[in-house]
Amino acid sequence: MRGLTHRSGIAPVIALMAISGCGGTIAANVPSRPAGTLAARAPVMMFVGDSFTVGSGPVPEWETYASQAARRLGWQPVIAGAGGTGFVNEGRVGRTFRESFEVELAWRPPPDLLVISGGHNDRRWSAERVRHAAEGLLDRVRGHWPDTRIVVVGPIWLDDAPRKAYEVRDAVARAAVRAGVAFLDPMDRRWVTGKRSAVVLPDGVHPTRAGHEHLAAWLAPKLA
């Protein structure tokens, strides 16, 4: 867990989330399946994210933490986004999370749950701009799918994160609090506990398949 010197501003955010009921383990608002019966339709969980969510290097989309978390829960995953993208950052594909939502997801029937995961690529932008963009996306989703449960997952850093990453994390958390949705913080955990190469690819940033498994094992129970 990171020192408080790197987490300026997060304590009020956590307090707000506790007051609003958005902190900690959250329910996905999906009907439970009675024992011994088969569901007529598995719940649908959509994701908007960056390369951590859609896959990178030797890890394809169907082996990312997003797909693995859905499989653990018995849900149908629909994954949108692209590497290098963020709430503000457009990456090489030239679109933000909001634009990925519009192009890849908004035309579909509403899912049971939408997970918006990212912020890693937004560290070059001001925290205020990131917060404003995140608020705009959440407002857009809420207006388009008013009955869909929304969860925001902050930036993923498997190893040491720069100070600016914490500012971005706090900005995204504040946007989630304003929207009244749950915020989950991957930066509040220590992911490398043994051999670094076991969970981090040689690029020093992205997860190995085992790293994605760790992320999915953390995320799935919070959505169940």
TrEMBL record:
Gene Ontology molecular-function annotations: phosphatidylcholine lysophospholipase activity
Pfam family, one: Lipase_GDSL_2
Residues annotated as domain SGNH hydrolase-type esterase: 47-213
SUPFAM superfamilies the record matches: SGNH hydrolase
Organism name: Nonomuraea jiangxiensis
Top-level taxon in the UniProt lineage: Bacteria
Gene3D superfamilies: SGNH hydrolase (3.40.50.1110)
InterPro entries (alphabetical): Ester_Hydrolysis_Enzymes (IPR051532), SGNH_hydro (IPR013830), SGNH_hydro_sf (IPR036514)
Ranges in a coiled coil: none
Taxonomic classification: Bacteria, Bacillati, Actinomycetota, Actinomycetes, Streptosporangiales
Protein name: Lysophospholipase L1
